[in-house]
């Protein structure tokens, strides 16, 4: 049986839009990137393996991995060298196969930590054990099945504080081919955005699709102008 979570379904551009990162940054995470340093050509190694390495086609699981990496980099200013070291330790010492998909990451200052067996392990300090009550706002937007595998992602749509943002839009690989939809429906955000651009009012769209107007506005923000949300 095909696991829709692992099927290539997103281009770099699509995934970058949903995650709010630049396509060039996302491509470097999945395909690596060459650069010149002091006249010498060097290679930035990929951090995540794409579902389809030849076309750099991304799966839902890839989307979640990039989402977690985006959160660590953007929200907590953790450097890629620290992240690489932490991921390597998880693979080598704790047997993780896909750390960004499996692990419950947290951060404290400039350190990168992971929750294992009810404890907080500091990956930035040689697996030092730390007990901490840390906010995990971004990880709470990933819904997991009983085995701990991601099954839904609720992207941040607005610019307001993270914990104040409702879950109005969801990405579910089993619904609408993994495209963002209004939560509780199968209505793609792209459809609503196109109708809005054609002149339909959000209030009318809400009535037509049986959704609340707030969710329709978030669907439009998701597709048209996330920076202004």
Give a written overview of the molecule:
This protein is of the alpha+beta class and 229 residues long. It has a domain of 70 residues: Arc Repressor Mutant, subunit A (Orthogonal Bundle), CATH 1.10.10.10. Helices cover 36% and strands 17% of the residues. The protein has eight helices and ten strands. The strands form four sheets. A four-stranded antiparallel β-sheet has the order 3-4-5-6, covered by helices on one side. A two-stranded antiparallel ribbon has the order 1-2. A two-stranded antiparallel ribbon has the order 7-8. The protein is globular, with a radius of gyration of 19 Å. The protein starts with 11 loop residues before the first helix and ends in a 5-residue tail after the last helix. About 3% of the residues have low confidence.
């Amino acid at each position: 049986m095909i696991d829709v979570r692992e099927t290539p379904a997103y281009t770099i551009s699509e995934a970058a839009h949903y995650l709010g990162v630049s396509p060039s940054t996302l491509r470097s995470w999945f395909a690596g990137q060459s650069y010149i340093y002091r006249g010498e050509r060097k290679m930035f190694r990929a951090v995540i393996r794409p579902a389809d390495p030849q076309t750099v086609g991304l799966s839902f699981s890839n989307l979640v991995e990039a989402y977690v990496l985006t959160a660590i980099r953007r929200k907590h200013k953790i450097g890629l060298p620290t992240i690489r070291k932490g991921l390597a330790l998880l693979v080598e010492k704790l047997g993780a196969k896909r750390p960004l998909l499996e692990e419950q990451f947290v951060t404290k200052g400039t350190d990168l930590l992971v929750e294992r067996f009810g404890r907080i392990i500091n990956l930035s300090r040689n697996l030092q054990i730390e007990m901490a009550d840390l906010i995990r706002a971004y990880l709470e937007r990933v819904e997991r099945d009983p085995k701990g595998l991601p099954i839904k992602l609720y992207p941040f749509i607005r610019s307001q504080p993270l914990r104040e943002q409702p879950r109005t839009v969801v990405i579910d690989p089993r619904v609408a081919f993994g495209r963002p939809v209004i939560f509780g429906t199968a209505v793609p955000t792209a459809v609503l955005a196109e109708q809005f651009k054609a002149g339909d009012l959000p209030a009318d769209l809400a009535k037509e699709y049986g959704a609340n107007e707030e969710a329709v506005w978030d669907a439009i923000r998701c597709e048209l102008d996330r920076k202004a949300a």
